[in-house]
Predict the structure of BAHD acyltransferase.
Amino acid sequence: MAPPFYVPLLYLYPNHDDNNNNIRDLVENRAPLLKLSLSKALSTYYPLAGSTGQGLHDPLTVRCNDEGALFLQARMMSSPLASIVDDEARLRLLFPDDLAFRSTTALSTPLVVQITSFECGGMALAVCASHKVLDMSSFCSFVNHWASSTAAGDRIEQVPVRFDLAALFPPVDVEVTKTFDPPNVETVCRRFAFGGSSIGKLKAMMRRHGIENPTRVEAVLALVCSSAISAADSSSRSRPGSAFLTQAVNLRPRLTSPPSITTSSIGNLSSIFAMLIEAGAEMDLVSFVSTIRRVKTEYFETCSAEYSRGEDFRSFIVESTKVFRDAGSSEEVAAAEPRVYISSSWCNFPVYEADFGWGKPVRVTTAAQELKDTIVLLDTKDGDGVEALVCLEEREMAAFQCDKMVLAFADINNQGS
């Protein structure tokens, strides 16, 4: 069920050494150190050193043949790291060419790493890993294990890692969704920062209307998606149609009955829940977050119950996508050409814990993508805010940026380009 593309994350590390005489040595010594520690980490996370995609007849198979990962080095010596931390155009240059969110069939390796050194001694680390091999939980486990190994050298103890998900949930040959072929339109991808204080005000407004303890993700996702739908309706020349919101979820915290699933279980253990916004439905922000919570709660409760009963869990995962799959088969819904908003929250994953021995990253972010109607949420460094990466049709983005709720709660000065 995992999409066949590279998931990209970018870690930005400033230079905390004030001795300018050591910068050249610092830059030159990091690459061999990272290569050595990566090779050791790959002996534990061995599927990442295998082959998949290009040249294989079975795209669902990872051939564990120790071919290794692709390790790239670059330099950006004309600019200090601090000058590009918030420069979206130049941040794109720090990812391996054309791999971020691209199909994994382009290469045979599931893992591509690029380090970029700066004249100030700072470093950018871009990691692109196949979603067919890792979900975000496993992605963080791998990078943080690699970081700890680098910082501690030979002193670190081996972390228990289990590749047992296929035994618990064997692959099933089923068409989970119809092929989603988005329209060929010009899209714009921009970032919107929601600071902790703004989210606090947003949550307080929701509590006043009866929403108990809304989370950061619920609040921001409801605002972004409801505003995106309003922007689409206002910029459309036709009658507003139905819309789906899908959200990817990590199932590990929900599967607590034996056999217990933890972060040491490496692979893909994620699914999606979907909610339908019917054409013409009056849904304000509070109603939107209430519906998200209801659908999500029902999904997780059923998920835990099905798993604890020991029944065929795969059937539940496939069935849970039924509302999404029905978008292509229901004549009534299909006639309305429903929009599909694909959201994924990477909040609350330990992306800022990756310390290779020179401190934690000053920023962790991802690459802009071109797929229409996508929303990716990430933590800000302080853990209180949320960074939303939103990709919309060009004319819809123009309306989205002028939405009164977006203007009220988002930091439009950090939206990028």
User: Anything to note?
Assistant: The first strand starts at residue 6 and ends at 13. Confidence is low (pLDDT under 50) at residues 176-181, 328-334. The CA atoms of residues 253 and 262 lie 7 Å apart. The two ends are 32 Å apart (CA to CA).
